[in-house]
Input
Amino acid sequence: MNNRTSVALLLGVIAAALHDHADSFAPSPSLLSRSPTTHGCRCRQSTEASLFWRKKKNAAVHEGSPTTSQRVEDEEQEQPENSRRSFLTATATTAATRGLAATASLIPSRAYASTDKQLNLSDEDLKTIILHDIADKDFLVSADITRSVYDESASFTDEIDVYTMDKWIKGTQALFIPSGSRVSLVGDVEVNSAEASFRFDEDLMFNIPFKPVCSLTGKVVLTRDPNTGLITSYREYWDQSVNDVLKTAKFGKKAL
Output
């Protein structure tokens, strides 16, 4: 897609979606005679190797015990070849771990004073800023928001979880690849004293192995504080379920 729950959950679901596509990456018959060492398959291979080892051990009681080197060689030959499903699961998990570890350094820490905020903007001025963030900065995938129009205590909610502003920014920047994604505004941005809202259509390229691109549509509602005019809540509504979104995954294709 850790401290930002959606990243872990999305990557977990993407890993499940990758399982559905695993057959298309299965090795050809000509490769089945090879025995490469694949780190991504270690968990599954270890389990099946363990079962195989027990069978070999039981057989040895009746047929005589071979040497250790012979048992290891036989075991390696019997292990499954380059399990694509296990590899995809492991790499997605690794990407999640690395992405989370990297998020702490993505954005410099900065304390925003009240003087940094654009208080009580007119509806038209706020609309101009939001349009700029959507059209010019692709903030839904880049997290490049105009922070001065958001209250520092603002909450960010999507179909997965609720986050603080800093966690949403860091998690979004770690999860998506803006250059491979597409964000389109559907209709106009509607703004009044209580809230701003707009609809979107987007293709999201995830920053994990194979760079899957998922498509979705939905709506964002930005709630404003009646006294300051600042945005205190970001709420994202998807037209599709999380599973349906991930079923649209395409691999190795940049969004147009």
